[in-house]
Design goal:
mainly alpha, 2 domains, 3 strands, 3% strand, three-stranded antiparallel beta sheet
């Protein structure tokens, strides 16, 4: 059964923050405030390709540029690794007191804890500020997460900074020997990727946008128009990889491929294919014991550090693809799978 969503007309159409917003900006905000993925607290995961399809847009050339623009102007936050979005104007159109009422309280608390850990402190600050006239609900919110923080501090495996009000543990670093992952095909890059992934897990995910810039800066009243979106503008320089031209390992799940495609958007086609070849070589070794997505993000981190060296396995995959006229075994398997689906 469908749900009814409400938008405050004055706070949307007459808000000074909306000045200079393009048609695409406004349409995307309406979508994020009302889509079927939305929840009680305004922070939830989306599938960009599905969201773009529901809006009748292309993912890379239309939806993602608008999403980035809304991030830059602080209307939303978006975490590319988890595909979580936080609609920063959610409480302008929904009641935080209603979300913390007895009937919805536990579900709201659960949804807050499900968002990316590095957002939670800012989210609670924002929500508490909107509850200034409701001391009862604000105190309840603070006590709820303080209790979680104190409980986590008592565990010997969780260390929290004393100034933190919230303790949400990151994924535990992998404690198995790195040598277990080595292989003659892509051993060095695989081990380095696992080191990088484990280090990232210990440190937590980096914040994608500046936390101290919470004021929306509208675009100039005159926005240059050109090729691009449905209501085109050139404020966003689209240097994205066209992932349709890339050859992915054939045994990736749809969720893993979607996550990897998102991560490759700002990588050139050539380098993106090299990364995918390294991933395919590591998978072919059958000795990788982490998840494929974790392994890929480790490889991507090494790439951004300028330390990625081509393995013999990846070189062999690239050579075979070249001999086949640019179509590798992975691509052939993908085409066969698509033919079966159709």
């Amino acid at each position: 059964m469908g749900r009814q969503r409400t938008i405050n007309d004055k706070k949307f159409w007459n808000s000074p923050k909306m000045a200079g917003r393009t048609q695409e900006d406004r349409a995307t905000l309406v979508y994020l405030l009302t889509c079927t993925s939305s929840n009680i607290v305004g922070s939830y995961s989306i599938v960009p390709r599905i969201a773009a399809a529901e809006m009748g847009w292309d993912t890379e050339s239309q939806f993602m540029p608008v999403l980035k623009r809304l991030c830059d102007s602080d209307f939303i936050k978006y975490d590319a690794e988890t595909s979580f979005v936080w609609v920063r104007i959610w409480w302008e159109h929904n009641s935080p007191k209603m979300a913390l009422a007895p009937t919805l309280r536990q579900k709201s608390i659960k949804q807050i804890r499900e968002m990316p850990a590095h957002w939670i402190s800012d989210y609670l600050d924002d929500m508490a500020e909107r509850l200034q006239e409701s001391d009862e609900y604000r105190e309840m919110l603070i006590q709820e997460f303080q209790a979680s923080s104190q409980s986590a501090n008592q565990g010997e495996n969780h260390r929290c900074d004393a100034t933190d009000r919230v303790s949400i543990p990151h994924r535990q670093p992998m404690d198995r020997p790195v040598d277990d992952y080595s292989s003659q095909i892509s051993g060095e890059n695989t081990k380095a990727a696992i080191h990088a992934e484990a280090e990232g897990s210990r440190r937590g995910k980096p914040e994608g946008h500046a936390q101290d810039n919470r004021v929306s800066v509208p675009y100039l009243s005159h926005i240059p128009r050109g090729a691009g979106n449905y209501n085109p503008n050139n404020n966003y320089k689209n240097n994205n990889t066209t992932t349709d031209r890339l050859i992915f390992p054939h045994d990736l799940s749809r969720a893993a491929q979607a996550s990897i495609e998102e991560a490759l958007l700002q990588v050139s086609d050539t380098d993106a294919q090299k990364l995918l070849d390294e991933l395919a070589a590591a998978i072919a070794s059958k000795k990788v014991k982490t998840t494929i997505t974790q392994l890929f993000h480790g490889l991507l981190k090494i790439y951004h550090q300028g330390k990625l060296q081509p393995s013999s396995g990846a070189i062999a995959i690239a050579d075979k693809r070249s001999q086949n006229g640019g179509v590798g075994q992975e691509a052939i398997a993908t085409l066969k799978r698509k033919m079966l689906i159709n």
